[in-house]
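Researcher: Good morning. I'm working through a list of sequences from a screen, and I'd like to move beyond sequence-only analysis. For each chain I'm collecting a predicted structure so we can compare shapes side by side. This is the next one on the list. No need for commentary yet; just the structure.
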Amino acid sequence: MKNIKLSRSFSTAALITVLLAGCSKILTEQPRSSFTPDYFKTENGVKGGITSLYAHLRNIYGHAYYYSGCITGTDEATYAQSADGNFKDMDMSGVGLVTSTSAPTAVPWGESYSDINTASGIIENASAVGLPDALIAEARFFRAFDYFLLVQTYGGVPLDLGAGELKFNTNPVRTSKRNTVPEVYTKAIFPDLLKAVSDLPDAGRVIGGVTKTAARLYLSKAYLTYAWWLENPGSIPTYPEVNRTDPDGHDAHWYYQAAYDVAAAGIDNHGSFALQPTYYDLGVGSNDRNSEILLYADRTESSEYYNGSSLTYGSGGAPDNFAVWMMTWNYTLIRSSKSATTWSNAASTVQRAATQDLGRPWTRMTPTIDVVENTFADKTNDSRYDGTFVTVYRGNWDKGGDNTPAYYNANLLPVKPGDAILTFLNSEPATAINYTDWATKNNVGAGALPGRADFVVSPQGISRLRYPGLWKMGTYRTDNAGGLGQPNAATTRPFNIAKLSELYFIAAEAAVKGAAPVAGKSARELINVLRARAGKWRFSNAENVAKVVDNSAAMVAATPATIDINYILAERSREYYGEGYRWYDLVRTQKWAEIAATYRIGGVNIGDHTPQTITRTIQPFHYLRPIPQGQIDAMQMNDAEKKAYQNPNY
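Model: Good morning. Structure tokens for this chain:
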């Protein structure tokens, strides 16, 4: 992949050219390629517009560049061996540079404004055609959703697309004025979400439809984020420059309390939603669209038309869900021997397959050594490491038509289909790993331990080439028919955007920041609800067997008596690792430079098992992403006006 220079002006938003690929799991309205002003004055037009608001989620969530921008450069990930500038730019380590032409930072801007305008068209016309307030509230939710994404990413953004603030625009315009951060929150995000909380139903109008609980989640998170912005403990600059005062006269503490109160109300009144009983249940593909998921960008394997992309070969472009490919290393390079006495006639024993532990390897992003050793330090009681990563790669040559009954692996010991071929160890072993005799034989730099048939890599051996895969977001298909299936297609799983569990984190964070908690919902008690769940196992991915163990008491006992922001951030990473939350979490709390300043990773040579410590340079201005150069170039404004429009230092 290469950098893509995006060019999308407000004239595009005014024309409302929204590509639609309605999903049968969500809505049944007929997809349309575009909307006209008159069409919005019909019932079908309004419903079609709402369909497009759901569809647009697929152009963001699952998009590899946007995904990279959310994770690469944080403490969760760095670039991997095959990364290009779309990933190296984000690492902040000197191998690339975030600029106004960097593709990952441009995605929210390029995808949000046409949908904001669509939402405004619905809001202005739905009542006139006799549609209920609950339906209009869906449009209000999505307009707030998009503006919240934009303000977190770029700072203050335009509320006027050419027809007035928050008005439906029908005339192409080539000028723009950015509103301030307080204006975006108090004029757009908060009013729309408050109305959505009031008018949305407890249960979605359709499967996957937005609800009162989803609106409460985003309202509480917006309050929390704005409270941090008002407080500004790290003296991070904002743009457009403005005093950090609230137009409604409230201070940061008021908003922390509001965030807590709304989140607590969401926990107490969660409608048809519920936490899953185990972390494994939350991530296993057969349980997608479960009761914990409040919002997702849906896909389907039942129809290419409704999926919006090929079911056999993914293009690597939106609306494909191909994010997980980026953190999948090339396990197909693993080799095993046909001979039990000498290493010879080596063959591929782990072949590309459309299964949750494998999928299509692109080797663009990798977890750091620190993630494995520190973030997920407890791998015994806490099920989240096992429920997040692929740590064992098992033989599947039989699925590809190879009838060889056994190959010979580490120490020339036999392995059968389903046996472990390569294992990423949970910790450094007491016995030194023998890389010398085996690293080149197995073709991936893994080593051997006495008596074990599987090749092994320890945490200290994780590199930009070899690392645990991301199981919880991995491929899931029901049409493999006993074979390898369609591993080259983008995953047809939904991309989860919002979960009921985050209400617990939002309330806990607000309490740490001074909100007065109610009985039974202190920061520690809220965090322990999720830590207790993390201690309950029902299946071990590493062992590939049922494992019914309840370590919840140990997990609760290990929780610190006093919870601080760093602990909440660590817990958020354990709960949401690799799901796209991290950059926004670190920017909101102004902890990015502190927490992600350095990381450890191995090199790009097959025999390199020596960790390197890499330093990042994260400046205060990096807490805002640049306005895409395509937007700047498309506007008919003078050079000084264009310069003033761009965020400083870009």
